[in-house]
Input
Amino acid sequence: MKACTTEKTLQERTRGTAGPKILVFSCRWCSGIGADDAGRKRLSMPTGFRCVEVECIASIDPDIILKAFSEGAEGVAVFGCHLGGCRYNRANHAAAKRMAMAATLLETVGIGAGRLLTSFGTAHEGYQFAELMRRFSQRIETLPTLTRKEARDWRLGG
Amino acid sequence: MTFVDTVACLLCRCHGEIDDVVDFDRLQLQLADDGRVDSVEVCDALCLGDSLANLARKMGADNGSRTLIAGCSALARGDELVDRLTAHGIDPGRVKITDIREGCAWIHADQPKEATSKAADLVRMGITALLHRQTSPEVEIEICPRVLVIGSGPAGMAAAVALGSYGVSVVLVESTGKLGGMLNYLSRVAPGDRTTEEIQEPLVEAIRKVPNIQVHLGTRVDKIEGSAGNFEVFLSGKNGETRLETGAIIVATGAKPVLPRGMYRYGELAGVISGMEMEKIFKDGMPAGDTVFIQCVAVRNQARPYCSAVCCPASLKNAIRLKESNNKVDVTILHRDVMSPGRHLEELYRCATAAGVGFIRFDPDDPPRVEGNDKVAGVRVADALSGQKRLIEAERVVLATPLEPRENSAIPLSADNHGFYTVQSFLHTVETTVPGLFVCGSARWPVMVDGALTQGRAAAAKALDLVSRPKYRASGLIGFQGTRFACAQVSQKTCTGCGNCVAACPFDACHLEKTKEGLRAVVNPVCCMGCGSCAAVCPNQSAALPEMASISMARIVENAFAGRPLRCRCADTQGSAANQ
Amino acid sequence: MNLPLQTGEAEDSILVVGGGVAGISAALDLARAGRSVHLVERNGELGGWTARLDKLYPTDHCGFCPVWSEVRLCQRHPRITVHTWTTVVELESGDGFRTAVLHRAPNAIDVDSCICCGRCAQVCQNAAVALTDPHVYPPAFRIDAARCTDCGLCIDACPTGAIDLHRQSEVLRTRIQGVVWATGFEVADLSMAPELGAGSHPDIMDALAFENWIAEAGPNQGRVRCHDGRPAAQVAFIQCAGARDRRSQPQCSAVCCMHALKQARWVRRRNGDVRCVIFYTDIRTEGRGYETYFRNEVLAEGIEMIRARPGLVYPLPGGDGIAVKYENTLVQKPAMEQFDLVVLNGGLRPVCPEIIQATGVLTGGFVEEGIRDVLSCGFCKAPADVEMAAIQGSAVAMEMLTEVLR
Output
């Protein structure tokens, strides 16, 4: 197997390819329903993201975020319900703080805080979800590739 | 659920909506390679025709098997499919819905190759989740068939009477020597000109008559322990100390009127009185003399940034009575906004205007000044609407002060920034974050008598649901979705007693217990809502949601970008600079 | 403890009319207590106005999510039968009970068979088919009978046979033991207050139309624009428009102060340069968290509050916006200002179909209580916000259980 030694340019990566690998953790309430609404409206989005639905984003810890990066993710997005609207008694407030801490952690280990997106949405915000995914994908693409040899072998098919 | 290491996959074409984009042939090939998949089937539309019944039959025959259904999203039809399978007797834990329509085919229609890869990844993630899923043990609690109502104001009495007359065993506890709460201090009840007797007497009578309502006057609650279905309440009163077991508790402890100490020369000048003192004067007879009411005293300011809702209606009510008893008397209400929302209160406002009550709006930055030497002579006010400063002569100035929360350390409820008990948000507004504990009346938020009666009955309805059956599934207490997703479990073997989960739990469902091995965290299944906060903060994964433990999440993430079995992509591109 | 009707079927159901939060609360509490409930809703989905609102005050959360949970509980509950597209046409008195005659006029597209593929909409030449709004659960496509020409192209396109353009309406008769009216509110006719200019220009909207206009999921995706597409630079909110007004609705609608505050706040949050002015008489912030919402979330966003009841609202010639003439009562000066959008907030009236009048319990259009087995809750009884409506629904369920059914 020939080793892939060059970095593809931004253009080459976006043209007809999957877009950067992004792992999305979303709660199955408002933010999940918002994503679902985007789907029902058939809003076009980059294909590189995968969604993991959790009950509440309060269950997301920095460990799993680091795990995502070690498994090849180039970005991680955490979507919860609006800060006034968590049905688990404001557990999303704790999650917001935890994600801020995780961002600092990512900065410290050299992955970069810009690769973690934390956002709060509502069930009606389908357009906003789609726009956010597009912009986050674009942002990740402008960042240098996370150096990991194996990651190249795992690149999504073009 | 029995442990399995393979699952069946069912791919739904959704009549082409999915397989027009996602290449099902390719997907099936990939899944065939996956050692965790024992069969892959395709159907046209699982939600229609016989497909679901067939699936139910198949799963019914093979009792341990689990099925991954890849099709539309949970909100579209997925939840409905699970419900229907459950109705066929299939344990819903054996099924997982993976969305490859709203989450894949429909948003990547212009990129079928990537969509197929993504669908494969999503299905693999779903398989992983399904294989690792365990079931939270279900706990059935025995319910003590009794409701404790704390406080006998209109809210408490309404709750007690509603429950008692339905047949529920009720204990009504009142800290003073008399039933009625605020009703004992009001002269009349607005809107309308109702006497407190016409409201209080039927309730007191019903309480007296209904045999299953027990009243303890002069009794306080000292401590509440336990959880929904089995609270242990420690009371003390003239009969000494008692212990009571109860299934549900309705907190109707009301709120207390603020005394306007130091405001508008209260306590310094004769004739300056509080709103409650005005009520007393009315109860004793019909007051005479020109009167000025000043609204928003000691409230809607930095210290108390809320509106107490009841003070404008009270002043309107009293102003009308003053004018109706003697039209020659001058009655003026000085206000910042007239809080008379809705239908009946707005009508009260109109009545007051029609009766000749004067209304003057003032700016909180330029409040009225009470004038007089040893008794009230009048009030000087800058009329915000006419711009003029006026002196209104009066013999009496009534300061409308707010209700403020009572502090009660015995009630294990959290309060909002103003000190009133918080409720579960959304549509469960007499239910608190503690299952089995309900709150109504002014303890919840300042409310008029009618509102308190309504809230009391609403709390009764909620409490009734809890105590009306001898056993209750703990996961069903959650309310807002019928059952919860999971109940947190803490492994007693690995828990180090650090207490992180205790602090993190938004519902105080976790606490530390002393065991032979040391402190261990224990989750109360009655209070756990399944959010997973504890799992996130546990340093060694001792706390977990069985349906989605962190090991499951880690495995799911490992499957997220697996793609298809790959060679290096560069080999596919001919003559590319990458081939070096 | 000896409670009635703990398990099993009740012979006589309770009829709950209205599928908004009040009706849903009443239905669930009645069903949990063991009674059968027929929950009747004239539209095609449960949730009422709450689910439709883009944001709720004072949490700024959308209405859908919490309502959706309750709606699902209603749909799954074995003792609740949900009837959408249904109205009550008759309540026949009987011997200690009534018979409710319900009329169901379902949409041409059967919601149970619709897979949301949208092929019908693609072939329709008259824009008569569309996906339901995000607040509708379950999602489906719907045909607007007013625009449908009966060409039948959609029927051929539909892969599941969900469409029947001549779908028959049905009549259902059911014995009931009590009625709960929870029919809520609708936008009132503002023609009795012609100075407000309602209907004279598309940029003069009632508050609920404006809610949709600026909704995240609405036609402008959260941006604030005029109907001709240009961005709006100033928005006026006129409170008590058609309320506290003897010509139309004499009562205060209770929800509009907070509603306007919320809308103005969100206009500013999404479009920081837009000037928002609220013309008010009183700002009623009596509920939990309302006053702090007003101070911290609204005034802090730079929204202008002018105490005035505008005397004239009219479109300026040449597409130059809308003129609002008013006297600022706090400075006693008359003024005229130009706005791009004007939101008329206030005119809400209770929904009161004729059948309610047959039970004889109306006062000023509101459904009071008078007859023993007929109760009411929510806005149709008296103006109420979401919290109050939900509480009243539960309270009415308890009243029904204790007073009516014993």
